[in-house]
């Protein structure tokens, strides 16, 4: 395999990371996974090998462990990095902000040191639309939208990480770097062998829907029905995780082609909004499963409606998401059934 095509994928056993590993292999890259499995399942590696039909290079290293990371970079000499590994639970970050700042910032700093020391050509950072905060008056948000103060330490780490990358890039302008700002990643690989594996009670809508439908949760509460939206429930931009994974590969390919350094931020979303009620209705219609649900009070901090202006992603990365909401829901449901079968056979 061509040495230049090696891509370090931190958090490669996690939800978005694992789907990106598949997409990288499908596009002729060689992913080198760094994941210490503190928030991911070891079984993901075997399932990734099943999907891709090849042995994976996986290193159980903490990204904050500079020496261990340096040794890996010295032996692999990757041409790129996709940095996913980070804590991401909003509630936990409120309870334990220092853990979030320490882990999410330090791991980034270590990786940026590697970019400089090993002249790693391309770098893609896993950011979030949370950097836009509550965009007053705006529903469709483009990258020019001002960065706001985040609602949680988790969100704040994304803002600070983008700032660190910006400052680093000023000192290292030859770096080719992109921050991808994800909207709401959902769904699972069509094989149903990998997907989102929430630890404890899910905060996110679709895992809560599928867990309720399978019987793990009693009932879904829709948070608020009196928003100023067509059906009164909140609107979000749900992007299929395989489309999101593809956006990472396109980012690496785009950066590779540039003959000078650059830093950019790109939204990754479908550009379409879907309401909570529409998600519930589409789930029932696509799966034929009745979903127990009720309406409850609004959740604190929820923005009524937000979706991506994804024009830049289409223009710069030449990429348009391919999957529908129905694809996302069906694949998430197949994945939930897979988890259920596996857990009940244990
Ligand atoms: N939501 C809901 N019930 C739940 C979980 C989420 O009604 O049990 C709603 C939530 O209020 C929001 C939407 O679903 O309007 C998406 O929530 P999620 O946490 O998945 O994404 P985020 O709000 O972070 O964009």
Which characteristics define this entry?
single chain; 346 residues; alpha/beta; Rossmann fold; seven-stranded parallel sheet; two-stranded parallel ribbon; 42% helix; globular; binds uridine-5'-diphosphate
Tell me what you see in this structure:
This protein has 346 residues and is an alpha/beta fold. It has a domain at 6-186 and 239-269: NAD(P)-binding Rossmann-like Domain (Rossmann fold, 3-Layer(aba) Sandwich). It is built from eleven helices and 15 strands. It has helices spanning 15-26, 43-52, 66-76, 90-95, 97-117, 153-171, 205-214, 241-257, 276-287, 311-316, 325-344; strands at 6-10, 30-34, 57-59, 80-83, 122-128, 140-141, 176-182, 184-186, 220-223, 235-236, 238-240, 262-268, 274-275, 293-296, 307-308. The strands form five sheets. It has a seven-stranded parallel β-sheet with strand order 3-2-1-4-5-7-12, with helices on both faces. Helix 1 links the parallel strand 1 and strand 2 (30-34). The radius of gyration is 19 Å and the shape is globular.
Low-confidence stretches: none
What would you give as the CATH superfamily of the domain at 6-186 and 239-269?
NAD(P)-binding Rossmann-like Domain
Instruction: Summarize the main sheet.
Output: 7 strands, parallel
Rounded to an integer in angstroms, the radius of gyration calculated over CA atoms is: 19 Å
CATH architectural category of the domain at 6-186 and 239-269: 3-Layer(aba) Sandwich
CATH C-level of the domain at 6-186 and 239-269: Alpha Beta
Structural class: alpha/beta
Per DSSP E runs of 2 or more residues, the count of β-strands stands at: 15
Strand content: 15-25%
């Amino acid at each position: 395999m061509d040495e230049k095509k090696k891509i370090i994928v931190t958090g490669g056993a996690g939800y978005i990371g694992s789907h990106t590993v598949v997409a990288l292999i499908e596009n002729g890259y060689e992913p080198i996974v760094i994941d210490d499995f503190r928030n991911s399942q070891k079984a993901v590696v075997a399932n990734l090998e099943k999907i891709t039909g090849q042995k994976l290079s996986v290193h159980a290293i903490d990204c904050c462990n500079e020496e261990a990371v340096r040794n890996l970079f010295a032996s692999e000499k990757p041409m790129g990095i996709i940095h996913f590994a980070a804590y991401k639970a909003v509630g936990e970050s409120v309870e334990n902000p220092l853990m979030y700042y320490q882990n999410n910032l330090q791991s980034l700093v270590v990786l940026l040191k590697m970019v400089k020391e090993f002249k790693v050509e391309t770098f893609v950072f896993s950011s979030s639309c949370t950097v836009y905060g509550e965009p007053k008056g705006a529903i469709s948000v483009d990258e020019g939208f001002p960065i706001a103060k985040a609602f949680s330490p988790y969100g704040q780490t994304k803002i600070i990480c983008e700032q660190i990358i910006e400052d680093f890039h000023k000192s290292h302008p030859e770096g080719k770097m992109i921050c991808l700002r994800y909207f709401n990643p959902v769904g699972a690989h069509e094989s149903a062998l990998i997907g989102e594996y929430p630890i404890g009670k899910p905060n996110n809508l679709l895992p809560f829907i599928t867990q309720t439908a399978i019987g793990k949760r009693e009932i879904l509460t829709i948070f608020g029905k009196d928003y100023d939206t067509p059906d009164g429930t909140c609107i979000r931009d749900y992007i299929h995780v395989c489309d999101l994974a593809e956006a990472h590969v396109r980012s690496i390919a785009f950066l590779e082609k540039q003959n000078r350094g650059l830093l950019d931020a790109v939204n990754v979303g479908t550009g379409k909004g879907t309401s909570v009620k529409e998600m519930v209705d589409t789930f029932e219609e696509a799966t034929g499963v009745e979903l127990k649900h009720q309406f409850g009070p609004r959740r604190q901090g929820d923005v009524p409606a937000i979706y991506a202006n994804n024009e830049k992603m289409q223009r710069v990365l030449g990429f348009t998401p391919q999957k529908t909401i129905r694809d996302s829901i069906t694949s998430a449901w197949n994945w939930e059934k897979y988890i259920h079968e596996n857990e009940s056979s244990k």
